[in-house]
Design brief:
Helix content: 25-40%
Shape: rod-shaped
Order of helices and strands: HHEEEEHEEEEEE
Strand order of the largest sheet: 5-6-7-10
Number of strands: 10
Largest sheet: 4 strands, antiparallel
Distance between the termini: 65 Å
Length: 155
């Protein structure tokens, strides 16, 4: 006589039911990590932009340069307006080393005070940088500092 061992059909069905119930509760908790990652990405970009703007401003002050004088950060020239980076590729994009080829797309921008540039990860998931403003560019007093705004409602 051969003795066989293994699981009965009822045992296998019970294991499948238990796994199904566990996955029904666990799956929704882990399903939407993409949105959290995109939100964290735009928040990190906003932090990088704020830090880069302040570092460029500090470099200009340390150099004793006038408000619109270009500064050099990590070997790259950063264009400035009103003591802070301009809102374009030669300004804040260079200062913060933003990858607009693979990570974000940049729209608009300009070299004047109060100009804005928007970095988009996906629609409604953006960071906007607004350059410092003055009544007359590169002439004190500065009427508004840089502004960095995040829209993460669509991340």
């Amino acid at each position: 006589m051969k003795k066989q061992s293994g699981f009965t059909l009822i045992e296998l069905i019970m294991v499948i039911v238990i796994l199904g119930v566990l996955s029904a509760f666990a799956l929704p908790r882990f399903a939407d990590f993409g949105s959290d990652a995109r939100t964290a990405s735009v928040q990190a970009l906003a932090g990088a932009i704020r830090a880069a703007a302040n570092i460029a401003h500090a470099q200009q002050l340390a150099n004793g340069a006038t408000l619109g004088t270009t500064v050099t950060l990590d070997g790259a020239d950063v264009t400035m307006v009103n003591g802070y980076p301009t809102a374009d590729a030669a300004g804040i994009s260079t200062a913060a080393q933003i990858d607009t080829t693979n990570d974000y797309t940049a729209t608009a921008g300009g070299t004047a005070g109060a100009a804005t540039i928007t970095y988009t990860l996906i629609a409604s998931c953006t960071v906007t940088y607004t350059a410092a403003d003055a009544t007359v560019d590169n002439t004190a007093p500065i009427t508004a500092g840089v502004l960095v705004t995040i829209v993460s409602s669509g991340c």
